[in-house]
Amino acid sequence: MMTRTRITETRHPLFCRAWELYESAFPADERRTLHPQSKVMERAAYHFEVVTDNDAFVGLLLWWHFDNVRYVEHLATLPGLRGKGYGKQVLETFVAESDVPVWLEVEPPTDEMKRRRVGFYQRVGFALNTHHYMQPPYTEGGSPVPLLLMTHPITVTEAAVRDFCRTYHPVLTDYT
Which of 28, 39, 91, 108 could form a disulfide with 175 if both were Cys (CB 3.0 to 4.6 A apart)? Predict the structure, then answer.
């Protein structure tokens, strides 16, 4: 049975496994370092969830619950388990639980792997938005990263993207 368990501190028994996956699955400019991550995990709106199947670690889902949107920051499964349906099951369940739209970021589909990733999210019901979007820097002194937003159940307007950035980007990068 697959479950998601929220953890709020780095001392949790599964944190090290999740952190290894996080560091290997995402480029350095799209993730936090350990200290800022430990601070953000304390915030009520942030969910650092480990995904297990029959108590075996299979992946992670890191997301924010805001008033009018659920924002998926990171989703990853262990490399040896990719393509086995875990990511799809996690996302389908996550979307079904939500009473607000779900947003996530993807790299522009400029190569086969990135196109496959966009296709994966589209098969789960996400729509690709082509509005200008920059992920805020997740490290001090870092640079914003040009990405695209995918939203469920429908696309959003450029004004909605600007409002999201103005309202939530400061929250995503405030580690105090």
Answer: 39
